[in-house]
Amino acid sequence: MTTSTNIPQHELLIDGKYVKPDSGDYSTIVNPANEEVLAKVARGDAKDVDTAVKAARAALKVWNRMRAADRAQIMYKLADLMEKHQEELIMLETLNAGKPIASVRRQDMPAAIDTMRYYAGWPDKIIGQVIPARPDALTYTVREPVGVVGAIVPWNFPIMIGIWKIAPALACGCTLVVKPAELTPLTLIRIAELALEAGLPPGVLNVVTGRGSVVGDAMVAHPGVDKITFTGSPGVGRGIMQGAASNFKRITLELGGKSANVIFSDADLDSAVPAAASGVFFNAGQVCSAGSRILVQKGVYDEVVDRLIQRAKAIRIGDTAKPDTVMGPLVSSQQMKTVLDYVDIGKKEGASLVYGGGRCDMKGYFVEPTIFTGVEHEMRISQEEIFGPVASVIPFEDEADAVRIANGTAFSLAAGVWSADITRVHQVAHELRAGTVWINTYGYTDIRLPWGGTGESGFGREHGEAALENFTEPKTIWLSLLDKQKQK
Ligand code: NAD
């Protein structure tokens, strides 16, 4: 739909139909790379959530009456349609989230399609067990869908993280109400349209756009939502956990990180330094697993800092639609302010700003790649998630010192270790408190491998077979084998 000023206007998508928001309000979606308006998007409220939840509940029966293999076929078809429309989706994601087009093409879009195909393979393989508990009964389990899933998605990887939630939920026979981040809803709205085209029954995948504090809150409070899958900040995650307690909803929380990337003196610096730089500057640092603490053994500290500065200088920042742009803007002026405030905090705490630290001299919410040295482990810039292109380079003495510093935050999502010593990398990998540890590489994820953390990084695991636990409930069935006479 297009408004009179030619700005596209998007409604809610509920029960297979476009629905005007109860509030009559729309938010303005801008391109963070040039601050131009891209679209108007419906601002849903609690009433819209209620309508969507009712549609999702009704659709549960329809979706689960289908053969598992037929549900799989619809998911494969959706993956095919995502592939067919990928140039459109890549451009939408680039413009809406301020991501360089090359990285959306290389990473976000292929990962989203791969995720849909991977989980399309699961519906007819989600099996129970016959457990021979006793001779007088046939005892077995089946795995039922948890029911209606509320999926709350952040703005840093809108399509990829959205599909991380949608695909396994569909594979398990669940229906969904999806709430994209208010700033970046465009690709998930399009995915829901493509899902209808693929043959997904109306009501199975509903999209209610709007504010987190309104739509997200209403989803968490709604008694008809059986499960919330959330990716976002620890503060909002805590509120969701408290809200879910009111009706004992199941929840999965994928939260923040302050990941350590540990470089020992014997590491291959030609590999370690470029990976450490992209580990923190990729997606302008708006990555939950950003290696924002670069721990460097003292013998190579100065050399690593010099090389990191050279890498930061070489990063091409600017127009995200250009194929050679490496770093885009932050997602909003608010996020830019948060990051620049952290730069000030770092300076006031006594860390040395050796590169960057300012807003780029261009339109859009661009911040320079930024490097601090002389960072003490206790400083706020070393303990708190900044979610911007800010690296703290921290020296360490030996393995014990590295592990102490790496494990010394409230987060535990990911970590990296670089060394030529095969025994050391395994020992350190085991000692690091992190859901994922990369050895002599950094930042890769694959939908087949579990993903998640503990503490302020949340709980539960997405990806792979682990995600199926999130969307199914085991049911025990006990069939008596006693003859009727004996049962009396
Ligand atoms: P956020 O917590 O501000 O928002 C996330 C989502 O929650 C958005 O859709 C938002 O609208 C919604 N929301 C906001 N208030 C809500 C409320 N009261 N009730 C329900 N929902 C509400 O996070 P963000 O700024 O969009 O994303 C950045 C955060 O996400 C960072 O902390 C980052 O580390 C984390 N993240 C984690 C992972 C992971 O896999 N662990 C991946 C990406 C991002």
From TrEMBL:
Superkingdom, taxonomy of origin: Bacteria
Pfam family, one: Aldedh
Listed GO MF terms: oxidoreductase activity, acting on the aldehyde or oxo group of donors, NAD or NADP as acceptor
Keywords for the protein's UniProt record, in alphabetical order: Oxidoreductase
Active site: E254
Domain Aldehyde dehydrogenase: 19-477
InterPro entries, per database record: Ald_DH/histidinol_DH (IPR016161), Ald_DH_C (IPR016163), Ald_DH_CS_CYS (IPR016160), Ald_DH_CS_GLU (IPR029510), Ald_DH_N (IPR016162), Aldehyde_DH_dom (IPR015590)
Family that this chain belongs to: Belongs to the aldehyde dehydrogenase family.
Name used for this protein in its record: Aldehyde dehydrogenase family protein
